[in-house]
Design the sequence.
């Protein structure tokens, strides 16, 4: 017998959001890890927020909402607020009841910036890494480093000459309007003479031959080789030596006197970089670059089986970059300046670790 399509709106709804979310939903173990980390941040929240004034968005809810934005690739705060308005799963994860009003996007953005400027992203990331260490998911001896381009929130037309007296030399617009067509043919543009008006610290850079140069930053990761979890992050200005400089800086934070290995691609195979690693008691397991020169890695390193294992494991860092760029909105940043870009890059790395830890703990022993 055919049922009737009678659309009658219920006045009341019975049952809590906790009952509506399945017990085996993938977000449940992540919510448990996030709540544990947020408890450790309680002291930091007390320092950031004063006792006087209007009550802000609870920082715990704000951070959970930011995680959802990265987990589900929600490209704007306005769309995130729209999802929170009717998505019961999102409301449950953030901590909103079914009838609580959702925040205005502008209010959410201002509270987010205030929270991230208080170094909460770095501390949250460190707590998540310590959780992984407590669950014995990390290797403390073998690591991999790599870098990737993060496209800046600035267009090519904003990259203009630094000297005001040379402004008249710019090619005139070919059509009127707020976004005119400009022909840069035969004009030499480089970071020494030009600067973006939108994001002055963004650099025109390309990482591989044959690719186009873009205004960008460089994001750097150090991952451990056991399960591919991120243990350190950096965002720097784009340059030809930034990847090696960032790797040295991150390795300086390892425990003193502890010998570890560090894998990397052939871009790290330089005499100076390998020498600095050895001074830090880090065994360089970087790929050999024998193109038109002699490699800095010799047989005293390559003859060991551990070198072969590091070369196989180091490619897992590309999986992290792939997830952060395609899912966590890090291919093209929506922030300006290396500090704010770095905060969101670090927070995206924490989100990746939470997903990875959930998957690892779900595997049968």
Sequence:
């Amino acid at each position: 017998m055919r049922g009737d399509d009678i659309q009658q709106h219920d006045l009341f709804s019975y049952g809590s959001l906790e009952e509506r979310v399945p017990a085996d939903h993938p977000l449940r173990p992540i919510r448990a890890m996030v709540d544990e980390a947020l408890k450790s941040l309680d002291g930091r929240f007390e320092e950031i927020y004063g006792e006087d004034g209007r009550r802000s968005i609870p920082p715990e809810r704000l951070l959970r909402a930011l995680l959802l934005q990265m987990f589900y690739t929600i490209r704007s705060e306005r769309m995130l607020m729209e999802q929170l308005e009717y998505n019961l799963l999102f409301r449950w994860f953030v901590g909103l009841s079914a009838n609580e009003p959702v925040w205005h996007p502008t209010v959410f953005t201002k509270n987010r910036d205030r929270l991230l400027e208080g170094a909460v992203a770095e501390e949250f990331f460190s707590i998540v890494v310590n959780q992984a260490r407590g669950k014995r998911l990390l290797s403390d001896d073998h690591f991999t480093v790599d870098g990737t381009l993060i496209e800046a929130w600035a267009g090519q037309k904003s990259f203009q000459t630094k000297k005001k007296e040379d402004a008249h030399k710019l090619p005139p617009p070919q059509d009127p309007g707020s976004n005119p067509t400009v022909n840069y043919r035969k004009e030499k543009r480089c970071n020494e003479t030009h600067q973006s008006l939108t994001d002055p610290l963004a650099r025109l850079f390309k990482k591989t031959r044959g690719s186009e140069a873009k205004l960008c930053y460089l994001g750097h990761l150090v991952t451990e080789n056991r399960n591919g979890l991120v243990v350190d992050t950096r965002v720097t200005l784009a340059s030809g030596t930034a990847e090696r400089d960032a790797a040295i800086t991150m390795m300086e934070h390892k425990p003193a006197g502890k010998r570890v290995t560090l894998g990397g691609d052939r871009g790290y195979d330089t005499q100076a970089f390998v020498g600095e690693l050895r001074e830090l008691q880090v065994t360089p397991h970087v790929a050999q670059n024998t193109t038109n020169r002699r490699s800095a890695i010799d047989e005293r390193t390559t003859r060991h089986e551990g070198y072969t294992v590091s070369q196989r494991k180091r490619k897992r860092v590309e999986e992290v970059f792939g997830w952060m760029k395609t899912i966590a909105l890090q291919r093209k940043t929506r922030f300006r300046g290396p500090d704010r870009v770095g905060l969101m890059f670090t927070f995206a790395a924490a989100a990746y670790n939470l997903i990875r830890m959930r998957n690892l703990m779900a595997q049968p022993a």
Observations:
- The longest strand covers residues 214-224.
- The mean pLDDT is 89.
- Residues 338-362 form the longest helix (25 residues).
- The CA atoms of residues 53 and 94 lie 24 Å apart.
